[in-house]
Amino acid sequence: MPYRIPIGPYHPALEEPYKLNIQSKGEIVEDVSVEVGFVHRAIELLAQRRNYVQDLVLVERVCGICSNIHTLTFSMAAEQIASIRVPDRARYIRTIMAELERLHSHLLWAGVGSEDIGFQTMFMEIYALREKVMDVLEIISGNRVNYSMNCIGGVNRDITDPDTVLAAVREIRAGIEKTIIPIFTANRTILARTRGVGVLSREDAVAYGVVGPIARASGLAIDVRQDFSYAAYEELGFKIVTQDTCDVMARVVVRALEMLESCRLIEKALLELPGGPLRPSELVTVIPAGEAVARVEAPRGEVVYYLKSDGSDTPVRVKIRTPSDLNIPSVRAMARGQALGDMAIIQASVDPCCSCTDR
Amino acid sequence: MINGIAQGLTAYFVWPGLLVSALLGWLFLWLSRKLVARMQRRFGPPFYQPFFDFVKLLGKRSLVPAGMSPLLYYGLPLAAVISITLVLAVLPLPGGVRASFTGDLILVLYLMEMPAFCDVLAGFASRSIYGQVGASREAALILGYSLPFIASVSALAIQAGSFRLEDVLAQPFSAVHVLAGLAFVLAVPARLKSNPFSIPNAEQEIVAGPHVEYNGPALALFELAHALEFVAVASLFALLFVPRLPSAGLTLLAYLGAALLLVVLTSLLAAATARLQIHRAFRFYWTWGALAAAACVVVAVIF
Amino acid sequence: MGIFSSILKRSRRRSPWVYVLNAGSCNGCDIEIGAVLSPRYDLEQIGALRQGSPKHADILLITGPLTLRSAEAVRSIYAQIPEPKAVVAVGSCPATGNVFAGSPTVEGGVLNAVPVDVFVPGCPPRPQAILAGVQEAARLLAEGKTGRKQEAPHD
Ligand code: SF4
Fold first, then answer.
1. What are the pLDDT digits (tens) for A223-250?
2. Which of B32, B119, B126, B300 is packed most tightly, with the most Cβ within 10 A?
3. Which residues of C touch A353 (CB under 8 A)?
4. C39 touches B: beta carbon within 8 Å
């Protein structure tokens, strides 16, 4: 029986509105097409109408999950044009924030993924752990989401109490090691739903140009933190995580191991936190004429910002390229020939972020 | 005669029928939700939750979905409630009517499938693709769990040489009971559509399964049918596999204990598992379910 | 009848099923709604459940500034929820458009599409605030005071 099943744009499996048009024969998926654009807010246009200080607030709201990454990349591009050197302490704090954000994002993803395979208990377990990450973010920045940590040239807030943060991060690491990873790799029902499901071969991964954990789960060793090191990754010695089974399980494992790596980076950065100022003594409002491209590894992959300035306080062009933009189409390659019931977890394994994609 | 009718009505509407079973069913549903919540380290809903859910749904304005006849829309959940209540009324629970007749076990088996069939029909009639996929999954699942379920009950009937509940219950305890009990328990999670066999109403793929177009009072009836089904499955389990004790009160207590055990077990299982794919659920029932079914029937025939 | 209607009133307050709708949010509010489901805040303790179909819901939680492409969906999903129903606008976006106000692809506030009963301010609001918002909406449902069309911020 051939079906045409639209999933979305508003559907419980989808964290955000986008549309999957599934064509299936019985319970087997034949083809999928993806439609995005439901959350288009014209952020690039707005950014070109506002000044740099306002823009930081705006780009933070490109995506609430990886909000910090957007201000970071925007600031990096502006710093590059204005040749501002970021103080060491600020670089370390930026790294810590970026990795904390990765932790919360990956945990969020794991929670949503478990809900998509109908494992509610796992969702609760993961969310309980994620709350601890949110606590740390709140201790540092004062807010749970949209931390407003970065400014052009440095960071807005200091980590005043590294020991509390360190203790909390150790607890989180223990939680990941003791509950999340064992359950995801040992529970039979989870294995039945993830192993060999939604395979994206290395060739397809290259063809679709995927980035981030998806690419690394298909055996491609690409990571901006390694390839074009920024913030303090060079000093901290980042280690890349890859898997080559290419299925949903591989994506789970890559993200799980990345969380451990994030914990390690945060712990190391906290222990080695250098002293010094956080930002230039004066607020940077005007950027000299010029253009720059900045790239950063967001939780979902590489984020690219292109910034062009004419020497005023308002950018002439802001271009944002987010990882989900590249990752979402690969659902098509993963879904062909899969069971209809697996579509939810397959699309979730990509960790699609539409507010980034649509901007 | 008048007495008989009054008795029948009481059995149908009060005990062990509609009223008491509904209350008991809500209690079971709450218990199951609360247990799952506690295992997830949540506080969980208060005990009156299923009752308030039901009343609230009754009080909502209903929209009959376009393209579905109102008769079908209200008829299906009503049929589900009526038939499952009939099952409860016929079961010879202590204090109920003892109107056992030849073949009443078969009637019970048939009527117990009614809510599931109504679900399937509701799904197909809903004209929603989600409803239809949900319905076809549920239909497949019925095929799966029916095997151990019917075999388990039949094994007891074969042993007793009769499909009369009274005769079946009169049998002394034996190995058949143990095996049949196992097969029965195997069928329970899928019957109640709880994890890992909740695929017919997998929210993440097909919204709400067969009930997707249902709302308001009609949905309330389906929920009621589900609560009653919970009680019916638990009572049948208790009746068949818990030996009768000398006094009616004690027997009732033992039955209640068995029913609660069943609720706890299914909740534990539901909390510890992810949802299985329909083909895996099907395969599970056609291997383990079939094995259990064959085992109990063979043992029943031999002994 | 009196008894039934008072029970009905109580049950409306005690059993608010919610449907979450993203009208172009940045996700910040959505992940906080996710957090409300988590053990620490546990939406279920006030009897609320998250439903996958608007037809089963009582309360519509809207996040986001109402993008042009989502406006139609917001209206139709609102219409699919059977009466009585309430709308909770989560975050600053659905109230005013927030940082996206003035964008050509954003309508700037969900009041342009549906009547709102409870606004939960914040960018994003804290989970406790969202929980309180749902409870407030449930109270309005019980008292039958929902659906007031408030004036739109601009024509
Ligand atoms: S209110 Fe803030 S956090 Fe919520 S959707 Fe809008 S921008 Fe995002």
1. 888 777 787 787 777 788 888 888 888 8
2. B119
3. 27
4. yes
